[in-house]
Amino acid sequence: MSSTESQFLMSMEKEQYKGKWVAILDSEVIAKGGDLSTVYKEAIEKSNGRTPLFEYISEKTDKEETLIL
């Protein structure tokens, strides 16, 4: 994984990916779905031997995950 993928992950619009696994390579989502093994297989086929970043996008938004005491 490069900083390109991690930067893209931090800045991408996640709403459409909630509850799904995504594979990111070169600032692009190259595979997505509910099952990691399926996403992994698709991403490996598209990655030309490079290693994508795999991330699960939670169904909860940041606001729902934040606890303020």
Describe the protein's architecture and organization.
This protein has 69 residues and is α+β, with helices and mostly antiparallel strands. 35% of the residues lie in helices and 22% in strands. It has a three-stranded antiparallel β-sheet. The radius of gyration is 13 Å and the shape is flat. The termini are far apart. Residues 63-69 have low confidence and may be disordered.
Can you give the helix content as a percent range? 25-40%
Number of strands: 3
* Ends distance: 36 Å
Compute the gyration radius: what is it? 13 Å
Q: What's the SSE pattern? A: HEEHEH
How large is the share of residues in beta strands?
A: 15-25%
Low-confidence stretches: 63-69
Q: What class do helices, strands and sheet pairing give?
A: alpha+beta
Q: Output the number of helix runs.
A: 3
Q: What is the total domain count? A: 1
Shape: flat
Largest sheet data: 3 strands, antiparallel
Which strand order does the major sheet show? 2-1-3
Could you report the average pLDDT, rounded to the nearest whole number? 84
Topology:
Elements: H1 3-11, E1 20-24, E2 29-33, H2 36-46, E3 53-57, H3 62-65
Antiparallel strand pairs: 1-2, 1-3
Provide a short characterization of the protein structure.
The chain is an alpha+beta fold.
Please give a handful of descriptors for the protein shown.
single chain, 69 residues, alpha+beta, 3-stranded antiparallel β-sheet, 3 helices, flat, disordered C terminus
